[in-house]
Specification:
The complex is a heterodimer of chains A (143) and B (146).
Chain A: E1 15-17, H1 22-32, H2 42-47, H3 57-72, E2 77-84, E3 94-102, E4 105-106, E5 109-119, E6 125-134
Antiparallel strand pairs in A: 1-3, 2-6, 3-5, 4-5, 5-6
Chain B: E1 14-17, H1 20-29, H2 52-56, E2 76-84, E3 94-108, E4 114-125, E5 131-142
Antiparallel strand pairs in B: 1-3, 2-5, 3-4, 4-5
Classes of the chains: A alpha+beta (143), B mainly beta (146).
């Protein structure tokens, strides 16, 4: 059992993104190198049966991961898993929340396990995530 | 129709250079504000290795994902995982990577529809050959109703 103060209950406030724009999608596509036209070409997206350009799963998931790494430090992440539950579109507003679900001590190392999620403006789950961090030095997460 | 013979297919190794400017651009796009993403030794955002495909597609036969023949219309990205065997890569690192189709399996949804899943794992190694990260991509294709 670690003597360090527990991080459960000290999670940062939810982060809200949006309303998402096609410009947000294009900025992410340039950064990631995924130029699937379904995310920016209105004619292509509507002819594929969508109401407009489809949001990018990895953009919402990337923002979800950023919420956590901004808190516990990008150097400390060791594992992150994300699962998509429903698509997002331009105009949607996303809310990222998360909580500490375990603070295990394994093989001489303290870890922090998180469950995180992204919901749309109607409260529907869009992305689910699970992450493991090595426990950062306490000074790095002090408010 | 998924080609189940793709299981075990391995791509040609490819190089991925981790660059400070690209990290800054990616961090801005995903709203990652931590100061560790800035500067010449910037650490990558947690999902940055998704930009592997930019490097992978420049090398012939590096990406074995295509061999599974997932439908462009019905195929979807179901799940993604990154594992880091230590601190994530930093600007200045040059990684040697290789992708392999590791599993193809079926699952029946609650509505009775058969879903076919394809998993590909990409291993990233540093210049000493040490495994530094793995990317696990899972795609899903609902089978067409008979």
């Amino acid at each position: 059992m670690s003597t360090a103060a527990r991080l459960a209950g000290t999670e940062p406030a939810p982060r809200t993104l949006g309303p998402l724009t096609v410009t947000d999608f294009v900025r992410y596509q340039g950064a990631s190198g995924d130029f699937n036209p379904i995310h920016h070409d209105h004619l292509f997206a509507t002819s594929s049966g969508y109401e407009g350009p489809l949001g990018i799963g990895m953009l919402a998931a990337g923002a979800m991961n950023a919420w956590a790494t901004d808190w516990l430090g990008p150097d400390h992440i060791r594992r992150t898993r994300m699962r998509w539950k429903r698509p997002v579109f331009a105009g949607h507003t996303l809310t990222i929340t998360g909580k500490v679900v375990a603070e295990p001590h394994e093989e001489g190392q303290d870890y922090v396990d998180l469950e995180v999620s992204v919901h749309n403006q109607d409260g529907e789950l869009a992305v689910q995530g699970w992450m493991r961090f090595v426990r950062p030095p306490s000074a790095e997460t002090a408010p | 129709m998924i080609d189940r013979d793709a299981v075990g297919a391995e791509g040609t190794p490819f190089e991925m250079r981790i660059e400070a400017g690209k990290i800054a651009e990616f961090a801005r796009a995903v709203h990652a504000h931590h100061s560790a993403h800035a500067g010449e030794a910037a650490v990558v955002p947690a999902t940055f290795l998704t930009s592997q495909f930019f490097w992978e597609e420049r090398v012939d036969d590096a990406n074995p994902w295509h061999l599974a023949k997932m439908s462009q219309e019905r195929g979807m990205h179901a799940e993604q995982e990154y594992v880091f065997h230590g601190p994530p890569p930093r600007a200045g690192d040059t990684l040697s990577a290789r992708s392999k189709v590791t599993r193809i399996w079926d699952k029946t949804s609650r509505s009775g529809r058969v879903l076919t899943f394809v998993e590909m794992i990409t291993e990233f190694r540093d210049d000493t050959g040490r495994l530094v990260a793995e990317a696990i991509l899972t795609g899903v294709e609902p089978q067409e109703a008979p």
